[in-house]
Design a protein that fits this description.
Helix content of chain A: 10-25%
Radius of gyration of chain B: 24 Å
CATH superfamily of the largest domain in chain B: Periplasmic binding protein-like II
Helix content of chain B: 40-55%
Strand content of chain B: 5-15%
Radius of gyration of chain A: 25 Å
Strand order of the largest sheet of chain A: 6-7-8-3-9-10
Chains: A alpha+beta (366), B alpha/beta (439), C mainly alpha (569)
Distance between the termini of chain A: 47 Å
Number of strands of chain A: 21
Oligomer: heterotrimer
Number of helices of chain A: 9
Structural class of chain A: alpha+beta
Shape of chain A: elongated
Chain lengths: 366, 439, 569
């Protein structure tokens, strides 16, 4: 596939920005989207990430026009679209179920949107071919959806959407119906395609790995609210709250309370002693200690580290690392130790110390 | 949940079966009469004969005959009770009736010119019925047409599309009316009258009751019906009138005991009751209004109730030859169906054209047009077979499925239908040509 | 007969239970359908006089102008009834399934009521409203000086039939529309499609299987219906011709039976055609994800229009019932827009007797419905889930019942079962159970369609899951398939029940005693005299209310059940 294709099928003109302001949505009494504010830059590959029921798909459908907000604004490329019906919005959406029409061939599925735009027959044909070419399915044009594999169906759905040259592209859990190997392959293709088309894209997923690997930025959703927006690394390194920390990667969370003040603040971990809180660290009200598994060491006390007593509860051998579960106070912390050939593993039940640098710990509230 | 329903149903079903077993003294009667007729009889018979219950099975005359015939191997029916004498004749000839001599005596042998009872004692007349013309007063007034009183009236242009009749193949009573006209006026003239009426028909109903029903509700203005339909409608308050034409006949409605009746005694009791003075009185009920066979009853009858034994108009009625009728029943009915019922649109088209030409001719005479019109009239009246052919063994066999390998009914029907189609089309074009000449 | 022979026991891989089921159903259909109908229809193939086998009668059929015309008319009327039925059903189905429309349940129930039209009274009521001198035409003539021939000729038949049978399309189409995956529609909107184009290109094609099922049922029912044309005095159609010939006194004409055979053949051909058209279009299994089309609120103007259209349609389709109600309360109603006066006397007259009729009707119709659901469910399971040889034959045989005129079946029952005596000497044919069997056979095709639809909606993976967890086939059916099919089975039961409750043609031949009579028979008896018109109508109203109440109740039960199963959102 080469660069010319972009002109044949794909985005029209310059990529568009999406601006969402003060959007609130209710299902009856239920408040499902709360004060959503979001700026997505032109050409960005953006993810909505969160557990199921968090509102991410609801917001996506709202952008596509299938949900209706009581208040707020959604602006695409400078145009407020919230009062437009779905069919006027020029927003491409790939459905989780793909929603390929079983009574039409692949080619007819792809041609549908173009025909709705009353394009000339030759033009429709040219763009159908281009779109199918783009996803590498030209040879299956006359098949029916039921005769395709899941991955092929997914590509047809994509081709169908891209063929209309949408202003932005929405992907609703596009990988969830594929097997693990296909998923990795397709997400890479998606990224490549998006880069080539320079199409502002929103990708809805509940899988942080998918979001991390393909997206420029991520909005983390929970309970109808955007918890944090940032790059994959930024979210991992600087989660705004316990939910984000926990949802993106593995995090140990230790309950406890803050004692002292000024530079002498300490964090008393419930039932396991206390550690100093570095100066200048902002500790919100009711904060808990958050520590990534790879930042702690077992039985090693490096300079500048603090330590807490614990007992090995269980272990998992993962190849490159060994993940230990260590009982610290009332919590079980997960700690990754690198594995080198010849190392002997620690047995469950053994009393030990865990050490970590206070600077690698975070204090976060809900 | 379905289980509970099923269980409940089975229990109630069992209860019904149990109730049946008790029965006893049940007299089963297959009849074409409506509930309005059977209910008063059932009530008064059971009151007069304690221990008996009358079980009424309502079927149309034709399906009743079929039913008795189909079930003869294990007969459960005691009595057959209906209007049309031909149905009884059909049952008798299939040996489905049994001979009986009622205990009631002193009843007349004839009503009008028709014998009251079967000469062989297989069935008995219990009421007389005459055929005539029923009309809806409101309808006639709204359409500004006079009340008809003779068959010939119904062939006049002003009655175009205002008349209804039951198909004689479906209604034994209408069959008798048709046969009466044919016997009274002769084969060719009779069919001429019938086709004249046919051209004015609005509908040919499939049930006898369809005609009075259409007249009662005002869907049609005039119907050719049996008298009691009109009388009972009047008694129910419908704005209808009835007239006996001079060519008509009064025939008895009958009852007969079915061969191998399971309750012979009960059957006999009912026949005797029906013919007794008490039973005859029930006929005068407003919902029934049939002419009793017992002349003495007419003293109890309401004002204006016709008396076939005294009124002079009934004395002049024609003599109905049941033998002639019997021989050609199927042929006459099929001819009516093929020439009139199933060709109604074409016949009406031709008739309308003739009426139009007649009207124009009355204003300005034109000999050539008159000639064409005459041709058109005779084309309409033309018959595919003569009276002799109709009664011939060969034609009859086609309908009775006799053991001779003669023409099949379907072949004859197709011939007659084709004949009618051609003649009516010819008549229409002649009449139209006549009209064109006058204009 | 033919299909019974088509079940060789040895060379099939099917389980013994399945073979037994096929054999049992085959036996049931043979005894209660094929043999009785066969004894009657046999006449069509015999030569007059000799009784030898022949097809000359069929040659006669095709040579006769009247029959050619009748054949054409029947096809024309059936096709046009489908067209008009579609025009009535489509707006109702679309509005109730795709919009937030108040009273959807009411419309779905009211839309069903036209099927429950008792014989005779319905046509009388229609005549009083739409006849040449009915209410509408009398008023039109007074005000505007013209009449509309609603009830005349073939157009009259089409008018009445489409009002009567459109619910078949409504029910099937609504179900299909409800089962369309929401994203199918949204994807089209997303690609720029909306309104009527969206409906025409995406929604309707996806609902096509349901529509075809309903439309073919309407076609066949109209093709085989004899009562409506006869009551409108239209005789040049096939079913009335068959009836007139079969029931005429003294005639041994084979043509009635020849026409019956032709009715059966055409009906099966029509069902086969729709099956072929639906082949590979069973989209329900292809679709997954969010259930049901999204319901859109109506805008103000749209709402006014929609309620107006629905109101008009309901007024039209319920007009026979409105007329019936008026008739049941009328003193005299003759050549006037409305009755001369009103009275409740007719109700008091039928009050005493009606309880017996109602009881009998409920017993017969519910037993018939139950048999239909059991047999229909079994056939559907055998056809859709097994490879037993002979299963298609069961399907075709059961469907053929649709085309067998009730009177042919009635006579067949008399011939077949009258000779068989019970221990106490009464013939088997006189037992009320025979009425139940006749009703069950006549209504089996309806229940069968419903069972198919219900089973198709149960994903096969649910059964596989049960078998995987150790349940046998039988236990899987009992614990998984049946509970999930309940809604559909109940729908089949309701259709069978409610139409059987007002069936007359087969009943008339078989009812042996007034105490065994169902309500339709009571009605028929009343409707034979001028004074009986009011009471007959009153009985008709009672029948309609009774069946409608049962229908509403079961709708309610289904609805609740679907909710607990979370099957509708």
């Amino acid at each position: 596939m080469n660069m010319e294709i972009r002109n044949e099928a794909g985005s029209r003109g310059a990529a568009k920005a999406i601006s969402i302001t003060d959007v609130n949505l209710y299902y009856g009494e239920q408040h499902v989207l709360k004060d959503i504010n979001l700026e997505i830059k032109p050409g960005e590959f953006f993810a909505f990430l969160g557990p199921s029921g968090c509102g991410k798909t609801t917001l996506l459908r709202l952008i596509a026009g299938f949900n209706h907000a009581r208040q707020g604004k959604v602006v695409i490329g400078g145009e407020d679209i919230l009062d437009m019906p779905p069919w006027k919005r020029e927003i491409g959406m790939v459905f989780q179920s793909y929603a390929l029409w079983p009574h039409m061939t692949v080619a007819h599925n792809v041609a549908f949107g173009l025909e709705e735009r009353r394009l000339r027959k030759a033009e429709v044909e040219r763009r159908v071919n281009a779109a199918l070419d783009l996803v590498g399915l030209k040879h299956l044009a006359e098949r029916r959806p039921a005769q395709l594999s899941g991955g092929q169906q997914q590509r047809v759905a994509l081709a169908r959407t891209i063929a209309i040259e949408p202003r932005v592209l929405l992907l609703d859990e596009p990988l969830s119906n594929l097997d693990a190997k296909m998923r990795v392959e397709v997400r890479r293709e998606l990224r490549e395609l998006q880069q080539r088309l320079q199409l502002t894209t929103i990708f809805v997923t509940h899988d942080q790995e998918e979001a991390n690997t393909v997206c420029d930025r991520i909005a983390v959703f929970n309970e109808g609210r955007i918890q944090q927006v940032g790059t994959p690394m930024g979210l991992y390194e600087k989660p705004a709250n316990l939910f984000v920390a926990n949802f993106l990667g593995t995090a140990n969370i230790l309950d406890g309370k803050v004692t002292g003040d000024g530079n002498a603040r300490r964090f008393e971990v419930a039932g396991a002693g206390s550690i100093p809180i570095p100066a200048g660290v902002d500790v919100p009200e009711g904060a808990k200690l958050v520590l990534r598994p790879q930042y702690a060491r077992i039985g090693v006390n490096e300079p500048g580290s603090v330590s807490l007593p614990g007992r090995i509860a269980h272990r998992e051998f993962l190849g490159a690392t060994v993940r230990y579960g260590v009982q610290v106070g009332s919590a079980t912390m997960l700690i990754d130790a690198p594995f080198h050939s010849g190392d002997s593993l620690l047995e469950p039940g053994r009393e030990t110390m865990i050490g970590f640098k206070p600077k690698s710990a975070l204090w976060l509230a809900n | 949940m379905l289980k509970t329903i099923a269980a409940a149903m089975l229990i109630s079903a069992a209860a019904i079966v149990a109730a049946h077993a008790e029965g006893g003294g049940k007299v089963t009667i297959v009849t074409s009469f409506s509930k309005d007729v059977t209910d008063p009889f059932k009530a008064s018979f059971e009151a007069a004969n304690p221990g008996y219950t009358l079980d009424v099975q309502n079927k149309s005359t034709s399906s009743g005959v079929k039913y008795v015939d189909e079930t003869k191997g294990n007969n459960q029916t005691d009595l057959f009770w209906a209007s049309a004498p031909d149905a009884f004749d059909s049952l008798k000839s299939r040996k489905l009736l049994t001979r009986f001599t009622p205990s009631v005596t002193g009843l007349p042998d004839k009503v009008g010119s028709y014998p009251v009872n079967d000469p062989d004692g297989f069935y008995f007349g219990f009421a007389a019925s005459g055929y005539g013309i029923m009309s809806n007063d409101r309808y006639l007034e709204a359409n500004n047409i006079p009340k008809p009183s003779e068959w010939g009236d119904l062939t006049k242009p002003e009655y175009y599309d205002h008349v209804a009749i039951a198909a004689p193949s479906r209604s034994g009573t209408t069959h008798l009316t048709i046969e009466t006209i044919l016997q009274g006026e002769g084969w060719d003239k009779g069919w001429g009258t019938l086709k004249g009426i046919g051209g004015n028909l609005q509908q040919v109903t499939e049930r006898s009751f369809g005609v009075p029903d259409a007249v009662n509700s005002g869907q049609t203005g005039i119907g050719i019906v049996i008298d009691f339909f009109a009388f009972s409608a009047q008694a129910s308050g419908f704005p209808v009138s009835f007239a006996y034409p001079s060519v008509t006949t009064v025939v008895p409605a009958n009852i007969g005991i079915v061969a191998n009746a399971p309750n012979q005694k009960g059957a006999e009791a009912f026949v005797n009751y029906l013919l007794s003075e008490k039973g005859q009185t029930v006929l005068l009920e407003p919902t029934i209004r049939r002419l009793p066979i017992n002349p003495a009853l007419y003293e109890k009858a309401p004002e204006g109730f016709p008396n076939p034994f005294k009124d002079p108009r009934f004395q002049s009625m024609i003599t109905f030859d049941a033998d002639v009728s019997k021989k050609r029943t199927d042929v006459v009915d099929t001819l009516f169906d093929q020439l009139i019922s199933f060709q109604l649109d074409k016949l009406k088209g031709a008739t309308k054209a003739v009426h139009a030409a007649e009207q124009a001719l009355a204003k300005s005479d034109n000999a050539e047009a008159r000639g064409l019109l005459e041709e058109a009239r005779s084309l309409i009246a033309a018959m595919p077979i003569t009276a002799e052919q109709a009664a011939s063994q060969e034609v009859r066999d086609a309908f009775t499925g006799g053991d001779q390998k003669t023409a099949r009914q379907a072949e004859l029907e197709q011939q007659w239908a084709a004949f009618a189609t051609e003649k009516y089309a010819g008549a229409q074009s002649k009449a139209e040509a006549a009209l064109a000449l006058i204009d | 007969m033919a299909f019974a022979a088509a079940i060789p026991i040895n060379r099939i891989s099917a389980k013994p239970g399945q073979i037994a089921a096929v054999a049992l159903i085959a036996l049931f259909l043979a005894i209660f359908l094929v043999i009785p109908a066969g004894t009657v229809i046999y006449t069509a193939f015999t030569e007059k006089g000799t009784g030898a086998l022949t097809i000359v009668n069929f040659q006669d059929f095709f040579r006769t102008r009247l029959f050619q015309q009748s054949f054409f008319n029947s096809v024309y009327v059936s096709a046009m009834s489908v067209v008009w039925g579609t025009l009535i059903a489509l707006p109702l189905a679309v509005l109730t399934t795709r919009f937030e429309f108040r009273g959807s349940l009411l419309i779905q129930t009211l839309g069903f009521i036209p099927l429950i039209m008792p014989p005779f009274v319905g046509a009388v009521a229609m005549q009083l409203l739409f006849g040449r001198n009915g209410t509408v035409n009398l008023l039109l003539n007074d005000w505007l000086g013209f009449r509309i021939p609603f009830m005349e000729g073939l157009n009259g038949v089409i008018f009445v039939q489409s009002l009567h049978y459109f619910p078949f399309i409504l029910i099937n189409l609504s179900t299909s529309l409800r089962n369309i995956d929401r994203s199918m529609e949204e994807a089209a909107q997303n690609l720029g499609s909306s309104g009527f184009r969206l409906f025409r290109r995406i929604v309707f094609p996806l609902a096509m299987p349901g529509y075809l099922a309903g439309a073919s049922l309407v076609f066949v029912k109209v093709f085989d219906d004899l009562a409506t044309p006869l009551l409108l005095n239209v005789k040049d159609m096939l079913a009335p011709q068959a009836y007139l010939r079969v029931t005429s006194v003294g005639l041994t004409d084979p043509m009635g039976y020849v026409i019956s055979v032709i009715l059966i053949v055409v009906s099966i051909f029509a069902m086969w055609l729709s099956a072929v058209a639906m082949r590979g279009k069973d989209y329900s299994t292809v679709q997954r994800g969010g259930g049901g089309l999204s319901k859109r609120p109506l805008r103000r103007g749209e709402a006014v229009l929609a309620y107006g259209v629905v109101g008009l349609i309901l007024l039209l389709v319920l007009s026979p019932h409105i007329g019936l109600l008026l008739l049941s309360l009328a003193t005299v109603w003759s050549f006037s827009p409305l009755p001369d006066g009103f009275t409740v006397a007719h109700y008091t007259r039928v009050f005493g007797e009606s309880s017996l009729y109602i009881k009998n009707t409920l017993i017969y119709a519910s037993l018939a419905g139950l048999i239909d659901v059991i047999v229909g469910g079994a056939i559907a399971y055998l056809v859709l889930r097994t490879k037993v040889i002979g299963r298609r034959w069961l399907d075709w045989a059961a469907t053929a019942a649709l085309a067998i005129p009730g009177v042919v079946l009635g006579i067949g029952y008399l011939r077949t079962f009258y000779g068989i005596s019970l221990p106490d000497g009464t013939p088997l044919a006189t037992l009320w159970v025979m009425v139940v069997m006749a009703l069950a056979i006549r209504r089996l095709p309806y229940a069968l369609r419903a069972c198919y639809a219900a089973l198709q909606q149960v994903s096969q993976s649910l059964e596989e899951a049960a078998e995987n967890l150790g349940a046998t086939k039988q236990r899987t059916i009992r614990r998984i398939v049946l509970p999930l099919m309940t809604g559909g089975l109940l729908a089949g039961f309701v259709t069978s029940f409610s139409t059987a409750a007002v069936e007359l043609s087969a009943t008339l031949m078989l009812i042996q005693s007034n105490s065994d009579a169902p309500i339709a028979y009571g009605l028929y008896v009343f409707m034979q005299s001028p004074a009986g018109r009011g009471p007959g109508a009153a009985l008709g109203v009672i029948a309609v209310i009774m069946v409608a109440a049962c229908t509403l109740l079961s709708h309610y039960v289904v609805e609740r059940r679907q909710k607990t199963l979370g099957m509708n959102k």
